[in-house]
């Protein structure tokens, strides 16, 4: 005959009736607990970053560099060198009323050839950077802080405005996997001291700058670059394999820029430290918080306070000092190295009171040493040796810290310590909740099935 059953979770007894009433909630709680536990595990995230201008090498001095030809119409002024390689044709730079270059014109010479090799390296470096923002298309009306911005076809509407807000050291890299199209009369505005030295446009195919546009940055196109009538460029127009076409433009290659940089592989922080050992009041204590990451992360307490007497070294992660008060303290320690995501770890410290000193002097009790000879009697000096303890009989156990509540028992445990979200404990409770729920569900179905079998026919 089926009998209702009950379950004991710690000191709480739950009857079948009350538990099955909330069966759905129990199973859901188990699922959520497991989900939260897994979600809180954060692995290191690798990224490729740069902390300075893209290295253009020998292409730095060029205001215009073409792959096949450079063709100009009208009075274009290029403040910088003009070159072409592997092609050799440069036209329209015979001086007023034609175009004018303040630098040197290089037609398929060694300088132009080397500049093209360096341009290829620069294009690859810019393309390798990890975007801070992806999926962009139309940049009109945006105000962008320093970063790496990527999209398929990047564009700026006719008459549109793009604002780059930063400082003289700020870097912007735009990655257009296909084309860059800048509309007529559009404008790129820089604020906060931002410099044209530090704006780069890596273009998968071709770039077009519209009529009378005010453009900022170095264009590094895999194929061609076209600047329409009256466009002003505070930067460079560099084409890797195809032509650069100009028409009454004013181009100024940036000078006096900060030293170039190269991309570096970085990793966001990930904690690797183990739970701290217990501390004792009055005893020097050391625990080291560790985390991987490139560059090396620094540490800070972002929640709670360390036990009194302990301090955290932000550079090394060493927590040291001499605790002055017993108790349990939980703090949140954050590791950061400039690479997202920033990670935090929850750390619990257990500090126990110092042991009481052993009793000495008059009144202490000890073991009586034998006197000289059998039957002799004399004065027994006190000793500081501990009195012998009684041994328990075989098969008997000492008293356990067990409490009883409504007929159920549970054993008190010391508070656990750990980092992050203490995954094993959370997963264990989540699994227990789900397992009890499943057994209970099976029990209910079994009860109903037996009830149908035992019911008289016709009822």
Automatic annotation (TrEMBL):
InterPro entries xref list: Cadherin-like_sf, Ice-bd_prot, Ig-like_fold
GO biological process terms, semicolon-separated: carbohydrate metabolic process
**Region annotation Disordered: where it falls in the sequence:** 260-281
Question: Gene Ontology cellular component?
Answer: membrane
Annotated GO molecular function terms are: calcium ion binding
Ranges of biased composition (kind: Polar residues): 263-281
Using the record for this protein, list the coiled-coil segments as residue ranges, or answer none.
Answer: none
Q: What is the superkingdom listed in this entry's lineage? A: Bacteria
Q: Which UniProt keywords apply?
A: Membrane, Signal, Transmembrane, Transmembrane helix
Name the residues that span the membrane. 423-442
Q: Which family does it belong to?
A: Belongs to the ice-binding protein family.
Q: Indicate what this protein is called per its UniProt record.
A: DUF3494 domain-containing protein
Q: What is the organism field in this record?
A: Mycetocola zhadangensis
